[in-house]
Amino acid sequence: MTRAFYIGRFQPYHFGHHAVIARIAEEVDELVIGIGSAQKSHEAIDPFTAGERVLMVYNALEHLSIRHYVVPIEDVRYNSIWVHHVVSRTPRFDVVYSNNPLVIQLFREAGFCVKESPLYVRERYSGTEIRRRMIEGEKWEHLVPKPVAEVIKSFDGVSRLKNVSTSDSNFSL
User: Fold this and answer.
1) Domain that holds residue 69
2) How far, in Å, CA of 141 to CA of 10, rounded?
3) pTM score > 0.85 for this model?
4) Which helix (H) or strand (E) holds 131?
5) pLDDT of residue 64
């Protein structure tokens, strides 16, 4: 049995992520999906909480025929210990899929098999672009699986994003 690890911020989860995960699912038996930067929320580039992102991913993958686990992963300030941090919070995995150069480097240095996951129509399926559309009041729902749009609407995520994107709210407490 082969279990893979794939991490993303999923701010929000979109069809690009969905295509990559579907492709990974063809190659492995189980998949651990890490919700990266889990401690971040209520910011312009990270508007959604870890729990909200877990729901987005879980609901979007409900019909995927692969056993999967969705695990929040907080950032650590030291890249040299990040892989150990990830491993300590997830079920064991055999292979890592990523297109992030730092993630690839860190996991390779730690002795993991790493496969690069190509971006899927990046210019269209980008969290940055989807958040921009939300802020500007443009259509965005067609860029995410329906269950993701439903999760975002359930807590009025677009209003939150608009509120935290205003200049007066861009400060840390």
Assistant:
1) 3-168
2) 15
3) yes
4) helix 127-136
5) 83
